[in-house]
Amino acid sequence: MGRIILLALEEVIGRIGVNAVLNLAGLQDRIGNLPPNNLDLAFPFEEVGQIQESLERLYGPRGGRGLALRTGRTCFKYGLREFGPMLGISDLAFRLLPLTMKVKVGAEVFADTFNKYSDQIVSVEEADDLFYWQIERCPVCWGRETEQPCCHLAVGVLQESLFWVSGGKNFMVEETRCIAAGDSTCTIEIARSPIDG
Ligand SMILES: [Zn+2]
Known about the structure:
By secondary structure, the protein is α+β, with helices and mostly antiparallel strands. Helices cover 52% and strands 13% of the residues.
């Protein structure tokens, strides 16, 4: 998953941008040295948090946020390629579900994937018109202290996953609580129905 983050970041800001971010984060060892393509838990959460912080320092809070969102969306595409076949979400049975069920089942499968293949702890809670994506141990803001919720990378991943699951619709996805901002979880609210009907 660390490899996917770096590949996605490179697609969004280019090789020179990635090198600048890694330098600023004090992660020179990672320059030109992607983690191998395996499921080892060898990419520490500290690095994920440091990369997010450097992105904001380098491009400013607004620019950094936009780039983190785009990187998250790109991460989903790479992730789907690596993890999709073992999740069953490309199967015909999944594709035939009604949209609301697809979103629910997709969110649960996706949370299980993070819980199984990373040290992240995620659960999904349902309310009337929302899902709460609750991250108890969050790599994106690991080691950070911020005024505002800052897990834009995670928001981007979820936006793109919903776009994919729904066959091209956009959903309201917003982080309302964040561990870096002093909350007990990073909580991302996901609307049950798409914005564009
Ligand atoms: Zn977080």
